[in-house]
Specification:
The chain is about 80% helix and about 0% strand. The chain is mainly α. This is Hpt domain-containing protein.
Length: about 120
């Protein structure tokens, strides 16, 4: 995958990992495991109409995504977080669907990178 098509900012990731591919994969796997939990919690917050929880979960996803260079997921989480702040659900299900699609690309990226190490 070229940098422009990558779901992860690989230059940023290499910077923070000092080029250590195994560390990158470990970091990304922790991100994936953690983010899955917060995506599920975001879905629950939407179903419950809990805007505070929606804001908190989206904020967590946003921060974690920014930390690993998952910029598309970061941007979508930011939009969802803003909806939580403004207490509106309009458009959030679509944003969450898009976030899940981008997150799936991150998961595929990590699987491809892991195959290179193994």
């Amino acid at each position: 995958m070229s940098q422009s098509n990558s779901p992860i900012d690989t230059e940023y990731l290499q910077q923070i990992s000092d080029g250590d591919l195994e560390f990158e994969l470990e970091l990304l796997q922790v991100y994936i495991d953690d983010t899955r939990i917060h995506i599920d919690a975001t879905k629950a917050a939407i179903a419950e109409g809990d805007f505070s929880k929606l804001e908190q979960e989206a904020h967590h996803i946003k921060g974690a995504s920014g930390n690993v260079g998952a910029n598309d997921v970061h941007a979508l989480a930011l939009a969802i977080e803003k909806s939580g702040v403004s207490k509106t659900i309009d458009g959030v299900p679509v944003l969450l669907e898009q976030l899940e699609q981008k997150f799936s690309l991150v998961e595929s990226f990590v699987a491809e990178r892991a195959a290179l190490v193994n």
